[in-house]
Amino acid sequence: MIRPGWWRDSGFAAVLTLLAFVPTLDAIAAQIGDLPVRPPDALAVTLTLAQTVPLAVGSRWPAASLSIIGVAFMAHQALGYPQTFGSIGLYLALYAAGAHQRRFRLGLAAVWTAAYVVLVVLLLNLGSPNRVQDFAAFYLVLGVIWMTGTGMRRWRAEEAERRRLSASLATAAERARIARELHDVVTHHVTAMVIQADAAQFLVGSAPDRAGDGLAAISDTGRRALTELRHLLDVLEATGDSATADRTPTLGTISDLVEQARVSGQPVELAEHGEHGERRAQSVDVELAAYRVVQEALTNAIKHATGQPTTVTVHHHDDRLDIEVTTDGAATADLPVSGRGLNGLRARLRMLDGDLLAAPRPEGGFRVHATIPFRSDS
After folding, report:
1. Whole-model pTM over 0.70
2. What is d(CA 104, CA 307) in angstroms, rounded to the nearest whole number?
3. pLDDT interval class at 292 (50, 70, 90)
């Protein structure tokens, strides 16, 4: 299988090979020997090609590419052939080795350091006019190029790790969100069904003519639970379809929650207040958060303060939504101030820059208050 990077490397090697035979570019070269120039011949052409063509596999086999190009460069310098733009391939091969070589990196660096020392000794014996300082400076340039490739390799690894961690965090956040949704749906509806079943069982013996109403309420609650669970399962299937507004519980259905609580035997009153006489349409996140706040508060009231008067008050302001659910006369020790449901709501509201307070009231009873700033879907 051909790797995607092969086409890039092959194209780059082809361009460098063509430029290597452009006379005007000969002045740009990796030159270190400065020996007396000998006329170019077939071997010079072969060595030039050996310094450019192996770049086609520089990403896949960086050590092999560097080895071929390095040996060709050493031979080209030792034989005193005219300098060529193709010798730039040495720099590129060093960068590729630093960026793509995974194993035996230190060993490869040590081998080529030793080879460079041999080349320096050979060039000096052949009469190179360069000094030891010149050879040392050239070696530093080669080292900088190698380290640049190494830095790129580390950056790519760190970037891949950042992407992996971001994906893991996103997955964990989505799982937590779905867990909160499941908790809200299952806890509320199952609690209501249990209360309704207990009431229906009592009515069977005391008022059989009213037992049917209780059974109908259980059936209706079960259907609501199935509808919301199907919506969550559609999300889990990850078909790519976004959640549609008509399947998302919104502020407009809070009255349904109140009516369901009443059927379960909880005396609940609903009051809505708006600064301009009408309620503004809000983003799905705000609407769903408001729905869940009322749902969780009523669920806790039904579970821990059955039969106690409960009031749901919704205030529509210009910039925020205030929701307050109060339960009168409840045993404050029985009503939770934390737990999976309330903690999940606090986390949900924090993501919307909102806040949730749940605490006993000084005059008795319990109060849940939520503030949700308005947001735009755009």
Report:
1. no
2. 75
3. confident
